[in-house]
Amino acid sequence: MIKKIGIIGSGMVAQTLGTGLIKHGYDVMLGTRDAQKLSKWVAENTGKAQVGSFSETATFGDLIVLAVKGTAAIAALEHIDEDALAGKTIMDATNPIADAAPEDGVLQFFTKMNESLMEQLQTSFPNAHFVKAFNSVGSAKMVNPGFEVTPTMFICGNHAKAKEEVTTITKKLGWEVEDMGTAIAARAIEPLCMLWCIPGFLHNQWTHAFKLLK
Ligand SMILES: NC(=O)c1ccc[n+]([C@@H]2O[C@H](COP(=O)([O-])OP(=O)(O)OC[C@H]3O[C@@H](n4cnc5c(N)ncnc54)[C@H](OP(=O)(O)O)[C@@H]3O)[C@@H](O)[C@H]2O)c1
After folding, report:
1. DSSP-derived 3-state class of residue 66
2. Gap from CA of 65 to ligand 1 centroid (Å)
3. Radius of gyration of the chain from Cα atoms?
4. Average pLDDT for 43-48
5. Pairing status of strand 4-8 against strand 27-31
6. Going by CA atoms, what residue is nearest to atom 24 of ligand 1?
7. What is the pLDDT of residues 136-145, one digit of tens each?
8. Taking CB atoms and a 6 Å cutoff, what residues make up the pocket around ligand 1?
9. How far is CA 70 from the centre of its chain?
10. DSSP assignment letter at 107
11. Above 90 in pLDDT, residue 46?
12. Distance in angstroms (rounded) separating the CA atoms of residues 169 and 153
């Protein structure tokens, strides 16, 4: 059973998921190259917040969350000993957002349509089990979002047990889960982030989420 979660990242996603997972009873460590950045998060989660290097955080986690800038995702995991990743589930919240301004509210990606960042990660780190999740909702609504209906988290990945682990966590955080299949489906899930961001850039609306109606 997953008890300890290592979150690679120090931004809003890492901090929000970190606090939410602590509230749900998990032991959580956030990983950063600069622990100073997390002093406020540590103060807000007194006694429960743990901070380490990327490597210490990956070693700590029974499951790892990847929440770093998309352009740095491979570089961040390269900081980590292969043994610390081997056989572990990596819940991947990253998006392949390019270092370029959105065009008419549409984010620019550094991947092409028939590619995805998660496939690149899975190829680069074949001994870990990547599962895409939490990439297409803003951090403000990630944890028990409080809509009248339960929103849908689209996930994908090659490893069935890893998807079960992510599903358990995602449901605890207030989501229903739709499994879209293997890692290749990240080609469809990652661009949902583009769609999600358009009302934000055009109308300053940042508090919606997707739901699959059936
Ligand atoms: N913000 C949102 O609401 C949201 C929602 C859904 C998905 N996402 C995705 O989630 C990920 C995290 O987003 P965020 O807004 O929380 O943070 P972010 O600003 O996109 O990323 C911050 C993290 O990236 C790491 N990083 C940056 N450059 C690096 C480098 N050259 N080498 C290694 N690590 C580097 C930083 O490491 P240090 O701690 O060492 O500085 C930090 O932990 C992104 O991929 C984003 O697209 C964001």
Report:
1. strand
2. 12
3. 16
4. 92
5. parallel
6. 68
7. 999 999 999 9
8. 9-14, 32-34, 37, 67-70, 72, 75-76, 93-95, 97, 135, 138-139
9. 11
10. P
11. no
12. 11
To 5 degrees, how large is the angle CA 52–CA 123–CA 120? 80
pLDDT interval class at 207 (50, 70, 90): very high
Q: What is the pLDDT of residue 184?
A: 98
CA of 214 to the centre of ligand 1 (A): 33
**Could you give phi then psi for residue 117, rounded to 5 degrees?**
-65, -40
pLDDT at 134: 98
Q: What is the mean pLDDT of residues 21-33?
A: 97
Predicted confidence (pLDDT) at residue 66 exceeds the cutoff of 90: yes
Interval between CA 184 and ligand 1 midpoint (Å): 22
User: How many angstroms from the chain centroid is the CA of residue 96?
Assistant: 12
User: What is the residue with the minimal CA distance to atom 5 of ligand 1?
Assistant: 138
d(CA 101, CA 45) in angstroms, rounded, equals 34
